[in-house]
């Protein structure tokens, strides 16, 4: 059985795929989103959205809705596991010249995805198929043919363009013959959602715990008392024992033995990798399908959403013949450059700093914390760093810049 879809297929119904789909659909182009799950998944994933992402969501008309569902954050702390505060920068130091969005948005990734999905589904020609897994991809000069599986039935689906936003294990990337260059960290990360009032105990809404053993990030998730605690453990420990070990980690990371309620947890391995190319013919990659990094600092999804922002402008311009296909090459090259030169190195440095033991590097880190504490200009530079993840102009025609 075969089917023809005259438009763009997006593989992956996460925030990156859905932002791409939303922008392309708003340009008047039919879009079909495919996802192998039965709905948007809800286990613990990203939670922090930096200022350039907030700005993008506002341009899309979503921010007012998201402010109601999420919380805003300005405060950070870098602290030791014993409770010493090394630095406590606040985005309140930023000026209108720095950004019109001097805050981050916090909310669970699935809630962000659901908000984007609701807006996408309001557009004529927008559609989603759940429980639909991409099995293979082939293309020619006129389009892309996907082999997809749903409920045990396999069919071919022909489309004009394909966007692979189907995660780090992307079938689209693999079927397109693209390598995923980089490395895997030796540790396992464990992401947990817990009800426990860190804020009442003097914590900021985003906290980096600096310790060679009990390194972690602790972030407020919502206004209902839910927090995210993400820590590392030895990957050689059996994964089926993760839940039984959480209490031992919490004994070190929680400041007292007050009661807490564990809501969810998810173990995962972390990688620093980038696809060899972000475009091959009529197939384009975005988000984790194109690049992955560790979650410390929230740079991975920020970078992925900024992929979607640019691709959602460039692809309609090409489809509507306002630009030639070289615009898509510039998209691919620019977003790969940003990841390899900015996102990836910064994420790796964030993780290194949490657990560093080398005396010389530790001394340099401590000097940085002092500067972050005492130097307002350095604070401003550090707090606006994520704007370096925004692309340089690639020549998108003005009428397609959403």
Main attributes of the structure:
402 residues, alpha/beta, eight-stranded mixed sheet, six-stranded mixed sheet
What would you say this structure looks like, in words?
- The protein has helices at 15-26, 51-59, 63-69, 109-120, 171-175, 242-253, 299-319, 326-355, 359-374, 376-383, and strands spanning 2-4, 8-11, 31-34, 48-49, 71-73, 77-80, 85-87, 104-106, 126-129, 133-140, 143-150, 153-159, 161-164, 180-195, 206-210, 216-220, 226-234, 261-275, 279-280, 283-285, 291-292.
- The mean pLDDT is 96.
- The longest helix has 30 residues, at 326-355.
- The chain is globular and about 60 Å long.
- The chain has 402 residues and is α/β, with parallel strands linked by helices.
- Helix 1 runs parallel beside helix 7 (299-319), helix 7 (299-319) runs antiparallel to helix 8 and helix 9 crosses helix 10.
- 33% of the residues lie in helices and 28% in strands.
- It is built from ten helices and 21 strands.
